[in-house]
Amino acid sequence: MPKTPDRRPSYDELAALVVRQMATIEAQRETIAQLEATVERLTARVAELERRQGRNSGNSSLPPSSDTFVRPDKKPTAKSGRKRGRQPGAPGSGLAMVDTPDEVEDHVPAACGGCGKELSATDSVGYSRRQVRDIPLATVTVTEHRAHRCRCGGCGRLTSADMPETVAGAPSSYGPNLRALAAYLLVFQHVPVERCAQLIADVTGARVSPGWVSSILAEAATLVADGIKVIRALLTLAHVLHVDETTTRIGAGRRWLHVACTNTLTLLGLGERSRQGANSLGILPEFRGVLVHDSLSLYNGYPHARHQLCGAHLVRELTAAAEDHPGQRWPVQIRWALAELNKQAVKARESGLTEIPPERSRIYLESFHHGIAVGLSLHPRAPGRKQAPARNLLERLRDRAADVLRFADFPGWVPFTNNTGERALRPVKTQVKISGCHQSEDGAAHWLTVRSYLDSARKHGLSAFEAIHRAFTGNLWMPPRRTQRLISAYHAASQNLLIAYPRVVLGTVDRRSSDKSVFPLPGGPF
């Protein structure tokens, strides 16, 4: 039976079908656009997460302890062909004998090995020597101080003697040696309170309580307070000042602390991560020298100070940019230029030059500025305030070139990195890892005060125990008078000494500008 042909759709039916298909296509177009936007957003998010996951101590400001999943690539060291250990002809070191020992013990054979006759020291015809270095066992000795009252034979008046200043007012107390040992163990050796009490009991026999050990911090902080005042004043007048910040734990909370230091002085203190917190040290508002820091924005609020951005942080950021953009050469070029300028600055400093010779620095300065220009062309600004990390880095290098390159302007004064400030903060992290958090804000403040005193004294050649022992025995260490006189002379002279401050300008030889600033006097930074 023949098949009946289907009825052909009418014009109105076809028109309605076209309308429905157009609506479907439009809906699909909107869905595709939404999916494309979602894919773009997720792709950017994945890239950002991968970038963060790839951060380590070699390409960011993260500490080495955070290198859990990704560790920085270590460059293979070139083999020199020499064996391990001391090389032939190198000077050796050992425990040398002294000419005048503290004690001498003679050992004489009791009898002759041949006939058995008794022998004595008068029969000696020579001897062999051995010297042993040892320490005496520490034991507590109880000293009773008696302040006598004497009656005058002439007028009959009673006069009483005063107790020594190192003797506490209690009938029975621990002396300055034991108190200094407790403070030394708590602050410098990071021994926890209970373990400190146990160590003192085991070694000396003094059964001190953990509460007494804990109270030593407040006493030590009070004793060194005058020294801290001098340190704060000298840091305010310093030529170059390193500043940094980190976190510590007090109880269950996290608190920020700040450090201001030089090669010879250190000051630590609690404060918020803000300009007000940095001002709590009592140094930055009046500081007029060069401030070395990691380009944290809060340090930009000190217009009277000059700045040096930490080169180590910039090198790590450039390393991260090179890893994020492997096909671009500008991060490697800028990093190379900064490293070579630092080498030239070291050579100039060792040669006693006040600046790098222009013929040595010109090629590196041109490479630095050219790399920034190329990078900016490859990373244009995005709409809005938020920019890519590479763009932010390039704009900072461009806009703050003088602050980045100030170490090259004054190689004898301004350092390339802020390592001095970062090293001053390491004991704080060590304290948290070994002894745990501080239990109170006052306890943390006392610990930081004593640590500032000890670090400053150690930078002048004193041992930590000697410094704290002097505080407890009434002979507080102070910065040398020579340091105080030099800084005072610098502060007085700098009020009237204004010279043209060098700025790095591409294509020029003298690199001078009309910017005026106080220039430090010769003699070295404090």
UniProtKB/TrEMBL annotation:
Regions of compositional bias (Polar residues) in chain numbering: 55-68
Sequence ranges assigned to domain DUF6444 in this UniProt record: 23-93
Annotated signal sequence range: none
InterPro entries per record: DUF6444, Transposase-related, Transposase_IS66_central, Znf_dom_IS66
Residue numbers spanned by region Disordered: 48-99
Residue span, Transposase IS66 zinc-finger binding domain: 110-156
Any Pfam family: DDE_Tnp_IS66
Annotated Transposase IS66 central domain residues: 172-445
Classification via PANTHER family: BLL1576 PROTEIN
Protein name, entry field: Transposase
Species the sequence originates in: Streptosporangium album
Lineage, highest ranks first: Bacteria, Bacillati, Actinomycetota, Actinomycetes, Streptosporangiales
